[in-house]
């Protein structure tokens, strides 16, 4: 009865939330749900994971997520974007990373570390250095402008991504997600507004993706073939200057690279692009099953999750709903599952393994915590 109900609702040959799927390198993901990266401010000043951060992620692995993605972690000390951020830039991070990978594996989820560099969004007040980017870009009145990276710095940063990925593999993770979304350094190189370089790293969109391409190649040359590489992109960004047309060119080009899946960050997967289609549909029709796609943004109910599968996503990314509802994957297979919406009382979040520090951070997300903003 339930399956028939799904069959009627889900057009694409009955893709179900609680079935497994595989990344391009053959890594089997046990469930369609993906815990999207969530910064949670719980790491120590030196970037080492705290027990609280490990418990938070491990609890969601126990909740049945197919993939657990860590918070964005900086691959260079100078690429840190905010306090309490997880790091992957040094070998001193290895014990914590190993413990986290072990915990996630124990619950059967696949584990991914999100790798990033903040670029012009790494405040000098935190790093003690002027922020760098693809070009000299205005940041804010207090931060001033970024400095254009020298070729040597670009190459060093590419190497840092590769070394960070190697640490993640050594720690026992299943893969990394290269954070090319949300206006951080990789996106700053991809965007026409933020990248006005005249060397091999600038030019048209395919030239602007040289930085990303070289990171992928460097990571792949450093890790084994069974270690998965995902790339997360913002399909459209006015701030950096990325159009959907550019993103489709980037996607086409990425297909020839040694990556195992794409993750698009939509913020609202229900919103229609000017073509009248959602971004997920636009991109999945273009990709036409040549590589698995994860899509994320404003999914809350079982019905929302199945809508996204029907739009062509292979993995359904969620962030906020997984905070109060760590067992979301178990219920998401049912179209009738409709968990409560925010705001949430702090106790409900601490009961779901968010530390007081993380709850306090969530008070900054409008309308999320009863006594927040
Ligand atoms: C508290 C919080 C922290 C986030 N941190 C990150 C991050 O570190 N990296 C990233 O790519 N996205 C980050 N995001 C964005 C989420 O991955 C996700 O794309 C976004 O929240 C939309 O999904 P949702 O509607 O299911 O929350 C964050 C979101 C939240 C709520």
In words, what does this structure look like?
This protein has 14 helices and 14 strands. With 373 residues, the chain is of the alpha/beta class. The strands form four sheets. It has an eight-stranded parallel beta barrel, surrounded by five helices. Strands 1-2 form a two-stranded antiparallel ribbon. Helix 2 (51-62) runs parallel beside helix 3 (94-106). Mean pLDDT is 96; it is low at 1-10. Flavin mononucleotide binds at residues 36-39, 71-72, 114, 179, 181-182, 232, 265, 267, 296-299, 318-321, 365.
What strand line-up does the widest sheet have? 3-4-5-10-11-12-13-14
Number of H- or I-type helical stretches: 14
What is the N-to-C order of secondary-structure elements (H for helix, E for strand)? HEEEHEHEHEEEEHEHHHEHEHEHEHHH
Helical percent range?
25-40%
Taken together, the total number of domains comes to: 2
Sheet-strand content, in percent, reads 15-25%
């Amino acid at each position: 009865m339930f399956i028939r109900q799904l069959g009627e609702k889900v057009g694409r040959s009955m893709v179900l939330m609680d079935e497994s799927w595989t990344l391009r390198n053959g890594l089997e993901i046990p469930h369609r749900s993906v815990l999207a990266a969530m910064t949670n401010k719980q790491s120590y000043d030196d970037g080492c994971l705290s027990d609280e951060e490990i418990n938070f992620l491990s609890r969601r692995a126990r909740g049945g997520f197919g993939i657990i993605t860590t918070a964005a972690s900086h691959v260079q000390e100078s690429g840190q974007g905010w306090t309490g951020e997880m790091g992957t830039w040094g070998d001193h991070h290895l014990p914590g990373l190993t413990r986290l990978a072990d915990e996630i594996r124990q619950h059967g989820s696949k584990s991914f570390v999100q790798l990033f560099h903040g670029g012009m969004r790494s405040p000098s007040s935190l790093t003690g250095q002027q922020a760098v980017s693809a070009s000299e870009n205005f940041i804010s009145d207090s931060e001033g402008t970024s400095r254009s990276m020298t070729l040597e710095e670009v190459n060093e940063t590419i190497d840092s991504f590769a070394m960070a990925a190697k640490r993640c593999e050594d720690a026992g993770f299943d893969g990394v997600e290269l954070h090319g979304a949300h206006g951080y350094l990789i996106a700053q190189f991809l965007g026409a507004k933020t990248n006005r370089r005249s060397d091999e790293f600038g030019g048209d969109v395919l030239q602007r993706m040289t930085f990303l391409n070289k990171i992928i190649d460097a990571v792949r040359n450093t890790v084994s073939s069974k270690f998965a590489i995902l790339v997360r992109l913002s399909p459209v960004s006015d701030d950096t200057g990325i159009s959907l047309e550019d993103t489709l060119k980037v996607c086409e080009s990425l297909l020839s690279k040694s990556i195992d899946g794409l993750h698009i960050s939509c913020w609202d997967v229900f919103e229609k692009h000017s073509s009248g289609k959602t971004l997920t549909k636009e991109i999945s029709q273009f990709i036409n099953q040549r590589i698995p796609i994860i899509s994320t943004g404003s999914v809350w109910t079982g019905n929302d999750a199945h809508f996204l599968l029907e739009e062509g996503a292979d993995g359904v990314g969620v962030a906020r709903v997984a905070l109060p509802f760590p067992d979301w994957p178990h219920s998401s297979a049912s179209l009738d599952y409709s968990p409560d919406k925010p705001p949430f009382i702090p106790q409900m979040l601490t009961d779901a393994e968010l530390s007081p520090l993380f709850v306090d951070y969530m008070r900054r997300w409008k309308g999320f915590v009863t006594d927040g903003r």
